[in-house]
Amino acid sequence: MLSILIPVYNFHPAILVGGLLAQMQELKLEGEIVLLDDGSQPDIRIQNQQLTELGPEVRYEELPKNVGRSRIRNLLAERARYANLLFLDCDAVLQDSEFLLNYLPYLDSGKVVCGGRVVPFSPLIHETQHLRWLYSLWRECRPASLRNQEPYQGFLTNNFLVPAELFQNIRFDETLVGYGHEDTAFGYGLSRLQWPLVHIDNPVSYSEYDEAPRFLEKTLEAMDNLNRLLARLPEAEREGFRNTVPLLRLSRRLGRLGLAAPLRALLDKPWIIQLLEKNLTGPNPLLQFFDLWKLLHWLRRSAAQPT
Prior knowledge:
Blueprint: E1 2-8, H1 14-27, E2 31-37, H2 42-48, E3 58-62, H3 69-79, E4 84-88, E5 92-94, H4 99-103, E6 112-114, H5 130-140, H6 144-147, E7 159-163, H7 164-170, H8 182-193, E8 197-199, E9 204-206, H9 212-232, H10 235-242, H11 246-256, H12 260-265, H13 270-280, H14 287-301
Helix pairs in contact: 9-14, 13-14
């Protein structure tokens, strides 16, 4: 009835798998947990090979090399045996002993369902991780009531249920490399089909956060993917796509007001970026500075693209 699909990369998800198994057994839920390793370090792979000992419902495989965030999820869906697919990140932490029970009403409903995410207000993390934690807290952790106002824009890959038949008609865009916006592309595909997308309050949390320098690097990777998505779209679809991405809406508005070029010129003044990054990599980062940093870099990256 349910295939739980977990891409694995340099993480040991034994606690997550054990929690899911316990809930499946309590519900007498027919299903499987499929884990696919995407080129993790050898010591991690050795650990994770023992996951199959947790129960016959657990299947674990390894890929010979890293194939990326989109391809790994498509491969997991191809290996699934059941008609309902539940995607979870390997570092997810279950918050509710009824996590699977909360998804049961939507099995075989034909709907895509997003459970959401939460983070603690006072995590025990290093100061260099504060930026990633703040971004998740204030930008990604939203109640279902807010996410349902713009359901396709709120789509995230970390915790969602999808009919297997629908997934094979959309799939994740494998031309996207590195980090970011595979969820944007998938959500846009759902919006084009006007497929029912429902957000519920059934979140998972996370135990690890990227350090600020790495998070900034990944943000730049995500911008490159966003440029690829935009450039590949037919002209007739670009406006609709821009409306699903806040950064694109803002840059479009700035361009129409004649402000994009002056802001882009700020990148020619190294001290401005240095000032922003000093704050963002420190113990008290400001999300407003992160927004400005991201906007400046996007305006430069998108200068030669249709925006």
